[in-house]
Design a protein that fits this description.
This protein has 256 residues and is α+β, with helices and mostly antiparallel strands. It contains seven helices and ten strands. The strands form four sheets. The chain has a four-stranded antiparallel beta sheet with strand order 4-5-9-10. It has a two-stranded antiparallel ribbon with strand order 1-2. Strand 9 and strand 10 form a beta hairpin. Helix 1 packs antiparallel against helix 2. The relative contact order is 0.15.
């Protein structure tokens, strides 16, 4: 039997993301409305699905490689790289790639609030004191992750090692208070491995993942699925989910 090409593999990844998106929308439409319905959990996951689709489209043009946490001579981040794939045409036109993210030339772009990159749980204001827009999702980076210091791995590599369904690409990290154009992400070698709740709009966290939600944070996996991860998750399980070639055995119940 002939081995599928990289293009064919990426096409299947797109299908996985599309199916996940359909399931997400269907679950929202079929959810009971008794006593009111909070749209934030599904909106949070929907944001991740859009980011995941953009990542897959990006990978198609870069030999299957995921976007790097930081790229270019002046250090652009992955959210800027994904903007053309997120239909953020205004952001693409506003951002100057020949200037640093925090330069005067990029003030207009940096001061924008980007809904796709912002958790619906984040309370207002959604900007810092300088008017720069916050974002809540970070690329899991650091040694052993899909984005190690020497550059991102391919989706093929993840599939052939720990597996797409048990490898986190992006996680909710509201407590790191990151600006959406800032080339900084949660790093397994720098942040504490764990998930914490942020309790105020000015609150911060030194954990790898964090959220304003009551009981969980969300994460995007390489197979296109968005999952909720409990604040009580075992740090060893979270660490294993962040690696791409650790050969750890992970059960679904470990995520709850």
């Amino acid at each position: 039997m002939q081995e599928p090409t990289r293009k064919e593999k990426l096409s299947w990844v797109r299908v996985l993301f599309a199916v996940a998106a359909i399931v997400l929308v269907a679950s929202y439409l079929l959810a009971p409305r008794v006593g009111g319905h909070d749209p934030r959990p599904l909106q949070n996951l929907h944001n991740l699905h859009l980011i995941g689709l953009a990542m897959t489209n990006y990978a198609t043009g870069y030999g299957g490689h995921l976007p790097p946490s930081r790229s270019g001579d002046v250090g652009h981040n992955w959210r800027v790289s994904l903007s053309p794939h997120l239909d953020d045409s205004d952001l693409v036109l506003a951002y100057h790639h020949d200037a640093a993210w925090d330069s005067p030339e990029n003030k207009s772009a940096t001061n924008q609030w980007v809904p796709t990159m912002t958790s619906p749980y984040r309370p207002k204001p959604r900007k810092d004191a300088q008017g720069r827009g916050y974002r809540d999702y970070g690329l899991i980076s650091g040694p052993g992750t899909a984005n190690p210091p020497d550059g991102p791995v391919t989706l093929d590599f993840i599939s052939e090692h720990d597996g797409m369904a048990t490898t986190i690409l992006v996680g909710e990290c509201s407590g790191l208070q990151l600006i959406w154009t800032e080339p900084r992400d949660p790093d397994v070698s720098r942040e504490k491995i764990g998930i914490t709740r942020v309790t105020s709009s000015k609150g911060t966290s030194d954990s790898l993942l964090s959220s304003f939600a009551q009981s969980h944070a969300v994460a995007l996996f390489a197979d296109g699925s968005g999952k909720t991860l409990s604040y009580d998750i075992d740090p060893k399980v979270l660490a294993a989910l962040c690696t791409v070639n650790g050969s750890e055995a992970i059960r679904y119940e470990d995520l709850r």
